[in-house]
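Mods, move this if it's the wrong board.
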Amino acid sequence: CVVWQRNSSATDTDIHYALVRADGTSNGGVRTIDNSSATIHYQPSISRTNGSHYEILQRWNIVFLHQFGPGDIDVWCARVNWDGSIYLASRFLDTNQTADYNAVASTATEGDLWLACYERLLPNGDTNIVTKIMGGQGFGSGVIDLSLLENYAPERKQRRPRVDSDGCRFAVAYEELYPIGVNDWDVFVTTFHVSPATSGFQLGVSERHVVLANSTDLEYDVQLASAWGANWSIGASRIPQGRARYLTTWTHGNAIE
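Not the wrong board. Structure tokens:
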């Protein structure tokens, strides 16, 4: 599944998608996630794959931004079945009256839970990574501030999250600004687990603030993929027990972003 932004005019941008066969040809032509008029929907992101090896649960998760007003950028979402039909129609995910950026969606777990992560600009100028647990056609949690939940250095700026699932847990990679120096961004990853709560689900920290790179050079543009999200399989299960679960890459060097 390929998703993109279509610009109809300066005041009307939409989100479209298409299924693509292995030979690169389109399967079913161009379809629409959100084609509303006179609205600004942009910067879509899609999960690495469509999740479970059970066909009935194979769904792509899509998030995108909505320009509601000056300084008010919301996060919206949708889900697409393996056959290209819409499972969850375009809807708001977070309408907090602040600016949210760089939204990304994980692959769903075997139990059809997934994370939507994004960067939030706070009133004091700080930026944190926040998330919502999603499941089925609804929400599994309210907004969770991962920078506070991780509780390593929540006063530092974190930005540009990347997220994926290994089939039962989640990993979130991100950039963090070191407080000494100028433009010294480093890259880290934290893993999380989900457990039932009184209402919905709650997120817990499994491995906190693992260093990927934190030299005095500039490290940025971190990318994250899981074996589960890459459709890796062993036997009847795609969860690679006892094996590497994630691959991360990033840009390293004193470059201008």
